[in-house]
Write a structure and sequence with these properties.
The chain is mainly alpha-helical. It is 77% helix and 0% strand. Helix 5 (106-140) packs antiparallel against helix 8. The relative contact order is 0.17.
C-alpha cells in the first residue's frame, strides 16, 4: 500500500508540472510527457515488479488492440459531435488540447506516442496501478461481492487517472481521461493482458492526435 501511495504522489506531481498553468508554459510538453512515461515505466518494473510475458505477444492480442483503438476513436468522434453541440465551451477546450502539438514535429510526436507515452501509461495505470488495487481489494479489504472485487479497481483507477488531469483546468480533457480510463480498465479486466492495451493506447494516441484528429 505504501508503494502505491508513493507512486500516486509521484504521478500527481508529474501531471501537475506538465499540465498546470503555473509550470506548463515553461516546458516542452512532449519532452516532459516522455520523461514522465519513462518514470512511470521505471516505477512499474522496479517497484511494481511488472513483467510482460512473451506468451502475451500473440496475433489475437495485437488484433484486439487495433480493433479497440478504432472503436475508441469512434467513441471520441461521437463524444466530440455531441459535446460541441451541447456545451459552448467544448470546442475551445478541445482546440487547446490540440494546441499542445503546435510548433512540434508531428513525426517525432507520433513516435513518442507510439513507443514511449502510450505504452508507459498502460504499463503503469493498468499493469501496475489497477492490478495493485485489485490485489488490495482481494487480500486486504476482502470484498465479498464478486462483482465489486473486479469493478472497484476499474473505477478507482479510472477516477484517479482522470483526477490527475485536473491541473489542466480543462473539463474536456478530464472527461476524456475518465472515458479512456474506464475503457482501458474494463478492457484489461476482460482481456487479462497488458499487450492489447498497449497496442490500443499507442495506436489511439497516434490516431487521435496525429493521423485522424477529431
Amino acid at each position: 500500500m505504501k508503494k502505491l501511495v508513493t507512486s500516486t504522489l509521484v504521478v500527481t506531481i508529474l501531471w501537475f508540472v506538465m499540465f498546470s498553468p503555473w509550470t506548463a508554459p515553461y516546458l516542452n510538453f512532449w519532452a516532459a510527457m516522455s520523461v514522465s512515461g519513462i518514470v512511470l515505466m521505471a516505477i512499474s518494473f522496479i517497484i511494481g515488479g511488472i513483467r510482460i510475458e512473451t506468451k502475451e505477444l500473440t496475433s489475437s492480442n495485437i488484433l484486439i488492440g487495433v480493433v479497440t483503438a478504432a472503436a475508441l476513436w469512434g467513441v471520441f468522434w461521437l463524444g466530440n459531435f455531441l459535446s460541441t453541440r451541447w456545451f459552448g465551451f467544448a470546442q475551445g477546450q478541445i482546440n487547446s488540447i490540440y494546441e499542445m502539438k503546435s510548433g512540434s514535429n508531428e513525426l517525432i510526436i507520433g513516435l513518442l506516442l507510439l513507443f514511449v507515452i502510450g505504452p508507459a501509461e498502460e504499463i503503469f495505470w493498468r499493469g501496475y496501478f489497477q492490478k495493485s488495487i485489485s490485489e488490495i481489494c482481494d487480500k486486504s479489504l476482502k470484498i465479498k461481492s464478486e462483482t465489486w472485487r473486479w469493478l472497484a479497481p476499474v473505477l478507482i483507477t479510472a477516477f484517479i487517472y482522470a483526477i490527475v488531469h485536473v491541473f489542466s483546468f480543462n473539463f474536456m480533457l478530464i472527461m476524456a481521461a475518465l472515458v479512456c480510463g474506464l475503457f482501458w480498465g474494463f478492457m484489461y479486466r476482460f482481456t487479462k493482458s497488458i499487450v492489447p492495451l498497449i497496442v490500443c493506447h499507442a495506436l489511439w494516441d497516434v490516431g487521435v492526435f496525429i493521423l485522424f484528429p477529431i
